[in-house]
Specification:
220 residues, mainly beta, five-stranded mixed β-sheet, 0% helix
Length: 220
């Protein structure tokens, strides 16, 4: 069934579900609005074994929601909490395509550090990190996920054909857009002068662009 609830001012919500003993997959979905994307998260609930709550956090100065693919690797902490204790649970971390990224066993404190290689995370895009445990005889299986954005830093060059021109003369400008992984082709580049937008050009397959522009008197 489907139940609709509203979050409070702190963004939290709580509801009670009358369920007989058994295993269930419960999902919470937010349909989004004009300024916010839709999101869906699932949780496995086993009412015959102790509940397990999983969480994922980034280590150090890294942000969990934005993962820089120019970094060689990322260290994340997976934590498990349960009335039966969170230690000794096998956990696996995958991406949104269910491709395995890392695995481990929680320690006595209920947590484990997992190292993820950037090359295994996938291309720059919005995605998800999903952590799952099968549980054991005393503790139920569980799953949680977080939304992430994988990105690479970009560099953009701009050069002109001459150092000085007269107003009204054409000026040829050229440059290239690229990341550490290579050039970015078919991307829109805006050309501006004096704060005014002149035109937008597309980079070629090598991430390069070239265009002759004419500057007005007050732009020279």
């Amino acid at each position: 069934g489907r139940t609709v609830e509203r979050t409070n001012e702190a963004g939290n919500m709580q509801m009670e579900l009358a369920l007989p003993p058994g295993s269930y997959h419960v999902e919470a979905a937010y349909d989004g609005e004009e300024s916010y994307d839709r999101v869906r998260v699932g949780q496995l609930i086993d009412l015959e074994r102790a509940h397990v709550r999983l969480s994922i956090s980034a280590q150090g100065q890294e942000r969990l929601d934005r993962m820089d693919l120019d970094r060689e690797e990322h260290t994340l902490r997976v934590s498990a909490e349960s009335p039966e204790g969170g230690g000794g649970l096998s956990v696996e971390l995958t991406n949104e395509l269910h491709e395995p990224l890392a695995a481990g066993v929680t320690g006595a404190d209920g947590s484990v550090l997992l190292t993820l290689r950037s090359r295994a995370l996938g291309p720059p895009a919005a995605g998800r990190l999903v952590v799952h445990t099968p549980g054991d005889e005393r503790r139920a299986r569980a799953q949680t996920e977080v939304l992430v954005v994988r990105f690479r830093s970009t560099t953009l060059t701009l050069e002109s054909s001459v150092g000085r021109i007269e107003a009204g003369d054409p000026l040829r400008v050229e440059g290239q857009l690229r990341t550490s992984a290579g050039p970015l082709g078919r991307k829109a580049i805006g050309l501006f002068a004096g704060g005014a937008h002149l035109e937008t050009v597309l980079t070629d397959a090598e991430g390069r662009f070239s265009r002759a522009i004419v500057l007005a008197q007050n732009e020279g």
